[in-house]
Amino acid sequence: MTTTALPPSGSAGTDLTRGAATDTVLVLDFGSQYTQLIARRIRELNVYCELIAGTAPASEIARHHPRGLILSGGPASVYDDGALHPDPAIYQMGIPILGICYGMQLLADDLGGRVKASQRREYGLASVVVDSEDGVFAGLPTEMSVWMSHGDVIEELPAGFRSVAHTVNSPVAAMSGPGGRIGIQFHPEVAHTPQGVELLRNFLYQTCGCSGSWHAESFVGHAVEEIRQRVGAEQVICALSGGVDSAVAATLVHRAVGDQLTCVFVDNGLLRRGEGDRVIEALGRSMRMKIVRVEAEERFLRALQGVVDPEEKRRIVGREFIAAFEEENRRLGGVPFLAQGTLYPDVIESTAADTFGAQKIKTHHNVGGLPQGMRFSLVEPLRYLFKDEVRRVGRALEMPDDVIQRQPFPGPGLAIRIIGEVTKDRLETVRSADWVVIDEIKRSGLYHRVWQSFAILTPVSSVGVMGDLRTYANVVAVRIVQSDDGMTADWARVPYDVLSDISRRIVNEVPGVNRVVYDISSKPPSTIEWE
Question: Are the C-beta atoms of 266 and 295 separated by less than 8 Å?
């Protein structure tokens, strides 16, 4: 059986996620590090948005019935050999197009203008002077701070286009042409462009004529119907981890097919303290779902023995996870569908088959970590949602707050919070330290004010003095971050007293640890997890 996302055909999930909304805007992805932010900003403006390969055929784009297209930025120059360009047929579709940075240069080059390397590149903050206060600039200041990241310039405009904004170094910082075709050299999607959201709003509502009818909650009813249609009378197994994503996915599928769903909770020994019992309590009793608990700690520890490479850890966890499911599937008589809580950031970071242009950051065990030839068809109703959208869906499903407000926990669990080999003793060390971090963050009232807080067991040992004796013991790192969706993050400015309490308790309560350090790295350049 194939590993197809829901629904299985050409729309790649759009109909399911859109719900009752009629408006869609597509972002054609040419590899910009900011592409996913464009999709987020548009969704925040209540218009459904999805990323699609920049070179996707116009016929595929047309199946989405988009109100408008956005050409993303990218690392190339349009005049390079092998530079990526969209299907020329998109310019015959009669819908508005917004080109951002590289996307603007594509518009110019594809439509008969000329782009060249600039003698004065623009990186970082710049001041844009607006020369025409209509279109996407309607209601905006005549001079704005914007974020630039380019080394090329429009030398000659395409026929019918005019310059509508400039900077000191770019005579054409924005251009406007017939049919709602607009190019802007700067990035409106990043926070460094304060009026960027309003510019995108003008494009969506004034240029594309969107109605703003999409909300994360609005897709629930339609998703339930899509699941019913696809699954029919068949049985479904749900991969239940206890995290927010799998819990919301399970609840959505349960609403669709009821007792046809069996949730399988694989207790792999890589979970937080008491995690398994909490999962059974919250979903088995509160949500009245059928849950089978599979004790698999020894299996996972054997598979991980001697493994230190983080990507290999993720692949092993994915492989053993599916193997455990297939064994349970045989006991249940051959269930054809596997539901899991894959989210859009998982897909983007793993650079799975339906993303384009971005470099793989890490393999998520439920995306790139899945083995070839697995014997399930995947049901992934949250595949095109971000974490905050999933929480809103959970509230729409009337799920308990203690489930939907839980901080994110990685699919590979504590295996990727141990730098180096995963052993039972090292798991107990990081599990105990993690318990202290969460306990103190909750006690200080910060649990719902930060995105994620946890401990990492490093491969470093350090000299210490405990009870007048020399020690040479483990160093534990503490990671606490602020984020909206996990795609970008900043380290949390936690009060010193809280950090002091965390450090004191870890050293006193966790055997084999004599030093605690605090991670003050942001994402990017770091990731939230260390592995």
Answer: no
